[in-house]
Batch of 2 targets.
Target 1
Amino acid sequence: RIPVMAANSFPVCHFREFCVVCIGLIVSGMISLSASCACASGSATEHIPAAARVVLMKAGKLIELKDYEGAVSVIRSFQQKQPEDGETDRLGCGHAEVHYTLGVCYLLENNTVMAAAALDRALAKDPHHVSALINRAKAAYELSDYRKAAECFQATYELEKNKDPEHLYHAAVALLLAKDSTGSIVIFDRLLAEYPAQFQLPWRENLVHALLDAGLEKKALPHIRRLAAEYTGEKQKQWQEVLLNEYMHLDMYSEALALATKLSEQDPLEALWWRALVHIHLFRNKYKPALTSLVILSYLEPLKDQEQRLLADLYLQLGVPQKATPVYAE
């Protein structure tokens, strides 16, 4: 018989680590350059004192000119007029929109820590400030505070009038980055239920990542099959490999054999599929088709030392010692 080690240690399709699809974020909800820059959500930002409106307009013009440092200076100077605790803030120095605009300026300057602090002050004044929430999510994401980012993304989705599933998706990915695969799956399941037609392939990739992270490999299989079917080119090949690997990992060797056979017929010059077939046939103690697959593999690329030894073992096992001898000699 073929030595056990030769069969079990044969290199098979290596699982490729998933790269979580990056969240491409821009600073959203930029302040209006008019005096009516408040959010139309019925929140506290609808009532901005005249002095604060003037400052916001000045800052807005500077932002338009990309003079973010100048805008910060205008706002900070205005905030120094903030009254003592207990006194009425008639000027609006501590108004949510003032803190929010300062936070946006800091984000545009890539001063993320200061941006997060200013946006936190804006949200303390007005927890329903959607633009502050989405920018706070961006700041948290850039600071690698993924749980906070997820919280803000989800809060944005719940509060916005026109629901944007992208915000819910960003929350799911942020939880995945925070190593909370269970929480991420809950949101992905919600997206699948509420937006089945808008559930994009990159979203499904990250759902698979979350499911595998949580040890839910069988639940991930339908999604992996769909990715392998719907992608094209190199991306499709990657997911075909992942699917094949999962079949073998779950001891679903009949499914693995059917898939590897199909793939080798579709792309007979791809060594990966023949290498997988060798492994599958060995597991099923089918030495002749294993030898055939290994010989084909040798025509496609040079065999590794371990594969060369396996080739000799198979020749010997199948009664062709004259073929095995030169391989052993090498």
Target 2
Amino acid sequence: ISLLCILLLMPAAMRQLGGYRLLLAVAAGLIAHLLGSWVAYWYFPDIGVYHEPVDKSTVFERMGGLGHPNELGFYSAYTVLICAGLGVSRRVSWWLVGAAMLLGAATLMSCYSRTAMVVCCIGLMFTFQDYWRQRSNAIVGVGVVAMLLVALFIALGTTGFDWTIERILVDLTKTGTTDELTTITGRTQIWQYAVQQIVQSPILGHGYCSARFIMEGDSSHCHNVLLNALLFGGVLSGMVVLAMCLYQLYAITLTPDPIVDGLAACMLVGGLVEGLLYAPSPAASVVIWIMLLFWRQLNMQIPTRELEASIYRSATASTLRPSDAAP
């Protein structure tokens, strides 16, 4: 019922608010969540610090804030991408969106969600696609990245660290072994078990959000949006989710919109390893996904300040224009 309510609410809200105020509202909600997470992290560590068991003797502490660190990581990525889109639209000062993006980036690093970090970077590439399409800017960007990498390797080498590729990969893990990366933090085993459960009921599935009762171990979902859909609702549910993903790919490719394409790319790539679209109670990911589905269908746009002022002047002039009708 809650999912149906969100599905009915979003198109109406988009019609009433328009693209600019809609993104402002979503960004405000995400920023409030991030600020609340920092309060919980600093002042209520029993709530805000997530203790993740790595093995029988090791616990890895991450910032969880008001939820799970991976969820907080994606909320941070959404904040960065929405604020970047508002900056690209030139409706909000880059000073303001820059501060919000800095908050999102700091939260992203603190919760140590590597998946969210990667998809955020991918999303930013789509958000700034107009900038990178200029050859000179692309060359400068590649040069800057190359210089940063060279400086990083020089720093690691001159300070006596072992900076081989294997050592760097180990430093990115929680367990200290590269097996964590090759299995995508155990997700390959989760996918295998999820497929076994899907085969048992491929037509009707096991019921909405049933993964938290079916999946074994510490996982409460399949860590993949398509597998989640197949597990919950069978083939029909899987086809619906697959169609939505294909539509997003089609929209990004043939009708690019830098303001929202970063969000779409973030969710598409993140959906490969996280269950973003299904939850017992629809969260921010579901709201943003539905917004993306209706964005082009409702012709959502963010007019520049000059265009908006021109439209307002035209509307005011037409209202004040004397009637042509005879007295």
